[in-house]
Amino acid sequence: MMNSEILAGLDFFERDKGIKREVLLEAINNAVLAAARKAVGPAKDLRVDIDPKSGEMKVYAKLIVVEKVENKHDEIKLDLAKKFKNDVQLGEELEVPVTPRDFGRIAAQTAKQAMMQRIRQAEKEMIYDEFKDRAGEIVSGTVRRFERLDVVVDLGKFEAVMPNKERVQTEDYNVGDRIRAYVVAVQNGARGPEIIISRSHPNFVRRLFETEVSEIADRTVEIKGIAREAGHRTKIAVWSANDKVDPVGACVGMRGARVKNIVRELNNEKVDIIRWSSDTKEFVLEALKPAKVKSVTLDESKKNILIKVDEDQLSLAIGKRGQNARLTSRLTGWDINIEQDKSVIEDFNERVGKAAKTLADALGIDQAVAVSLVKGGLSTLETLTEVEPQDIADTVGIPLEKATEIQTAAKRASGSLASTQ
Asked: Could you give all domains of the chain from N- to C-terminal order, each with its CATH number?
């Protein structure tokens, strides 16, 4: 008899694991048959019969009916054969039970081993069959254990592995945590199928948007590109062929509800939703927001873009550790170089230089002193005549006596200027 533990195992694995009873019985039959061959001997044709309900196992052999047995493994004596079939004839092939006396214990152990081995094989087959077409989907599971830096996640019937390179380095995972992840691949390797999942893959964000934003799911809004530094920031470019649909607004949702759900799933990773444009210049300006750009210069041959911004916008445009510029470059496919726009400074210096030269010529003073006066707000003859000599001395950093001389010269020049008018 097959023991009750194995019978219970057949029921459990069929009910809970979805492995058909017939598949397991076939594996058990083959294993028990091999055990029977060892126990019975080299019989030509052995068969094992297993009752799927009771678990009773019987071994049968096909023997040739003879007058005198010369090979006990292949032949049976006529008078003994008649106990199984009354009208049996000499030379007839007869199937008779040959179950060894102590075979039950050996068979039960063999059956158990065969069943467990077949279950492991069946589970691997089921993993591959169920998941081979699910690469690119999001799955949910529970963190079960860690293998070095890899995270093993329980998906219910199966396990998945999140390799260290697919983890988000700013996230902590603990045994028992419920997590969602993107199925990167289902590999059928030497050790069987392996489900590889990721939380750092850019397509994880893509799938979250497809789930959360109905306009993306029905293709009213199209995701044109994603650039991501997992755990820190993601830029996603969206577009709609329908002029009446605001692609950015659709992704943000009412009061930001849709993007908030995505950001929550990403553990507060920043998500920039950008309006895609076929015009590279316009697209880059959108991608760099909220930074205000002064000028954009495109080099089509090198796919290089030079961006110029005011000094107060420089750190915003480049981003923390260059992140904003780097993600914009990945999203647009162009090399981005961001510089401070110095044209305003150059214009200012040019105006200062002209005003200083006018003063230097009128007062007969050194150009450097004249520049200091202009930068200090004392840029006209009239202003120099109205202030105290000490103010001039403090502004330029010169002795009071020298400052008095400058003011006197300013009054003289101002007077001569007035007399000529």
From this structure: 4-129 (3.30.1480.10), 132-200 (2.40.50.140), 202-276 (3.30.300.20), 277-341 (3.30.300.20), 344-420 (1.10.150.20)
